[in-house]
Amino acid sequence: MNEFYTRVDYCEMNFRPLSGNGGAKSDRGKTYIKFGPPDSIDRDTDNQDKVVESWTYNKSQRKFVFIDKDGTGKFTFVNGQ
User: What residues contact 44, with CB distance under 8 A and at least 6 apart?
Assistant: First the structure.
């Protein structure tokens, strides 16, 4: 239970968009709470200059891709493997 609330607190501090809505309820927050910290995070821009963030989990061989469509820090889930 302690680990769960530690992850929730981390999400609230690190994944909150400019609008101020809860970071733990965001797509990145939900992923972080469920799977923990990713082994690697890659940030880049797509061909429309939108920020794209890819999270890789080596042990479970999962990858999650999030995009900030409107530049407000609200990343939405777009793809997962």
Answer: 51, 52, 54
- What total number of domains does the chain contain? 1
User: Which residues form the domain of 12?
Assistant: 2-80
- Among all chains, which residue has been given the structure tokens 């994944």? 15
Segment 55-76, tens digit of pLDDT: 999 999 999 999 999 888 899 9
Q: Which residue in the block uniquely carries the two structure tokens 């530049």?
A: 71
For the entire predicted model, the pTM comes to: 0.89
CA angle in degrees (0–180, nearest 5) for 47-13-56: 45
- Residues 16-39: tens digit of each pLDDT: 888 777 899 999 999 999 999 999
**Residue 4: Cβ within 10 Å count:** 10
